[in-house]
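Folded chain entry
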Amino acid sequence: MRKLTAWALGFLLALGMAPGVALAEEKGWSVESASWQDQSNLVLTWQAQEGVTYEVYRSNTGEDAYEFIGTSSSGSYRDDEVWWPYTCFYKVRPVYASGERGALSEPIESGENQQSVSKVTVLMYHNFITEEDIQSGVEFEEYSLDPEDFREDLEYFRENGYTTITSADLIDYIDGKKPLPKKAVIVSIDDGTWGVYKNCWPLLKEYGAKADFNIIGENVDETWYLLRDGGSRDGQSAPYCTWEELVEMQESGEVNLCSHTYGLHRYNVDGRIGASMMEGESVESYASLVAEDYRLSDSCIGGWTGVSPTTMAYPYSKRSTTTDEILLASTGYQILMGGQSARGTESNYFVDGASPESQLRIMSRPCRMDGHPAQEYLEAADAADLATGAVAAEDTAGLTEEECAEIALWYSPFADVAGDAWYAGSAYYTYANSLISGTSPTTFSPEEVTSRAMVATVLYRMEGSPDISGGPTLSDVPAGSWYEQSMAWAAENGVITGVGDGRVQPERGITREEMATVLYRYASARGVDTSVADSSLGVFNDADAVSSWAEDAVRWAVGEGILRGIEGGIAPQNSLTRAEMATMLMRFSQTSA
């Protein structure tokens, strides 16, 4: 993709075409979509032919002249010279290898056939320091975190359906190799300090989380040589990792090693701040500088791990559009981490299906400061970006069964749920929508029998956890129990009925037909039409095993696709597993909720 340069202007003039002249009206083909990526980027997509270059034109009204704005060698183009909700129109023309110019596409209006947009929020972290570290001489700065504060961040991610990814995952998405999960977060840790190995990595393992670790190569080298020669990190105010420790973290799968430059993390040395350009510095000189620094960084990270770094975090977040372009053209970096609002938004947005060359590679990255939990940054980012009107809130409730299965294949949120398990998509759906908690930070326990209390709690969450003003007295629900409120709500609203003497048997396992009945009652209470036009249970070899009191509910659940058969039967009396509960809840949410 290129903007109108002097060369391009000359090319057009040679063809007798000046920018802004009216283009001949001819019946052409169609551009598929003109999607707003965010408030300052619009992405066009079309079906491209191999070996064909495409000229892109823009008009302010569709009636005035179309101006040439750039070319694309793929099936998409990103226009970063418009602003939402500015209305404009586009036409695209193929230019074949022979030089022959094809027909213009039909005009398409900005925002037409808007494609889905994926969001990634990046949070910048630094060191993780305990009280013991401080007593040993490690300096705790405003960028540092107590590990317990980081634990609270990780718990918030788990409880609210966020998925931690790495920039390597993001590159795979950009290259069309895999999807992105909803509510994706990159934990981006700068510098390379020892506290990450000692205090952060154990928590990442405990919570099944992933992170980028952006290391300053020369600082790690200095530490490695120091320890090799018999020195010690004891008493250092900011001790760094060794290469062996970094390799151990990288091989674990939780940590993705990235670059914070090899030797440019210096403030105002000879007029340069980090990896920024100096005043008056030529493009050639700067390109040579960053290429050499990349070579050194790669010789360390790639030499030790066998994996070259593909992401660089700008030191001090000092950057410009020019440095972005030169770094991406002169090095092996594919993603550049900036600071807050680096790309004009607080989170980072990508048009699904757009070609790699059309995707922005600079990432906004607010800094997680001591005393400000991750929740604060995530909520602020959403509030700021949604206020522009250009992007929409992520619709986790609207995820389809197929989308969930595809995401879970790559990003199963639980260690005991294989990505290709039949229930992996539903486990992901209920996780992303904060409906079912894991039995630990990393386990789902899919084969565990579901209790009545579990079901009540999930539906109570779906209802928004309302306050309970009264309701029946439940003799077998202990005060202060984790299910006290949810069981009271379920009993008060007739979703789960008692068994006599004020008892509801909260810890008793629930059967498949009972689950169908609970969902049937819940749907009815919410005003959902639960009538069944024609749904026979005769296709199941055990239809006569359905209890008479559950028949209407089971017939409805089967008709809605919420309850499906098992090896020709419906197994109404079987205990419901957590995997089955997740699946029924996902289907219920997608069809009836």
User: Anything to note?
Assistant: Residues 1-22 have pLDDT under 50 and may be disordered. The CA atoms of residues 213 and 355 lie 27 Å apart. The chain has 17 helices and 16 strands. The first helix runs from residue 6 to 14.
